Amino acid sequence: MLHRAADWFPQGERVVDGLFRYTYPRLREQVLRCAALYHQLGVRKGDRVALMTVGSVQHVVALFGAIELGAIPAALHVRESVGTLSGVLEQLSPRVLVYDGAFAGVADELRQRKRLVTGFVRIVSPHTPPEQLTAGSDPVLPRDLEGYRLDFEPMEIHEHDTAIIALSSGTTGLPKGVMHSNRTLMEGARGGSYLWRMMPSDAMCNMMSTAFIGWYNVTLPVINAGAKVVFMPHWDAQGFLQAVQDERCTHAFLAPTMWRMLLRHGLEGYDLSLITSAGFAGEPMDTATLREIKARISPNIFNIYGSTESGSCSAGTVMFPHDLEDESRIDSVGRPMLNGDIRIIKPGGSADDVLPPGEEGEVLIRGPSVAVGFWYRPELARKVFEGPWWHSGDMGMIDADRYLYLRGRIDDMIISGGINILPSVVEDAVMRHPAVSEAAVIGVPDARWGQRVVACVVRRGAVTEQDLDAFVHETDLASYARPREYRFMDELPKGNTGKVSRKGLRALLAGD
């Protein structure tokens, strides 16, 4: 894919950030030099290369430099503790650790802990502090690449070879290492190009964390089409708007929380007229924000549901713009992606235990971009990969029109008095109150009922526990599912992906 982009779309700066602007031929040249550097550091086909980097041009060089050799890159969650990063490296056992100069201190700590990592490479990005641009004795990208040349043909790469290890968000214990092959990545790139109707004249800004599958779902379809991808090291509403204007971006893809922040920041003074489509994923969208995006950004809006395991762009589901014209379907995540499929099964059952439309159960996904397994965790892979189907752990329901609606995680199910209660149903009732900004519902231990329902609420206006209890009492929520307690918070704890962490909530309440 990268070599094809360099061969057929050589004109113009197509891979850019705040410091570097590469054409595809220049990117390929740097990738080959990086591969030669890795080879000198002992990297061979199948070896892992860990990347502690933010979104940038040099991250792309480091990533594809590993793939060029048939090595397996794994981008780390840069906000994790040193202890967690050390545990991840223990599982990955990488030959080389590539780190942004911004994380030089963490890299030094890991250098002392992990003797299996024998090579260290530093990269420069817009996130790198000035004092860290050239410090230290490790090779620096791109400064030192001119001294390397790939003067041999790497070992042959096959479509079934593991291409990357993408780390899950790590809500429980160490994050899982989700293995994607060259084939699943290419299918995701094709599916993404189809979804965005990507052409060589298009441009897209990618501010996703490099460890998330969303980074690949933006980057690979753009490179596959020979278009332009613009990298930001972290989320910044003003910086995003400026980049969209200056780089003449035609597509915008953000989480709903980011869209709300963008709209609150204000769009005045920015030329966003070239945007032809907008997308969101990762959490529910509210009607007011959806309407504002349609009116001020683009009427063509997509909602994507997928995961690290599904690869998302050729498995999972999508709401196309015409689907979202009916606002009553705003809570749906749509129908299967191109060449993908989904089904709802009885929780705890097999892929053959299919439930009819209207009944709630576990969401199963299959498609050409679904991952091939878990690194270091074959026993877990056997539990969630059943033939071509992946058990998502999400609860959902398919309605009569064949639209999928999510109902939370199976692990989040509350069992009170022997009755199963889905948190999402309770949250929907609480969120209807106009003074509630956010709500998350969990089960806490109860001597009589096993668990009792507790609602954790962020207020946007004045409201008391008694007010909410009376309000929910008037909804159609079953009496056994109503919260028995309300906890008001300034904010709800979030995980790496920005989603509410129920584990964090349970820990907070346990500490009270």
TrEMBL record:
Domain AMP-binding enzyme C-terminal per the UniProt entry, residue ranges: 426-499
Bilayer-spanning residue ranges: none
The organism's place on the tree of life at top rank: Bacteria
Molecular function per GO: acid-thiol ligase activity
SUPFAM superfamilies: Acetyl-CoA synthetase-like
InterPro entries the UniProt entry points to: AMP-bd_C, AMP-bd_C_sf, AMP-binding_CS, AMP-dep_synth/lig_dom, ANL_N_sf, ATP-dep_AMP-bd_enzyme
Domain AMP-dependent synthetase/ligase: 4-375
Protein name per the record: Long-chain fatty acid--CoA ligase
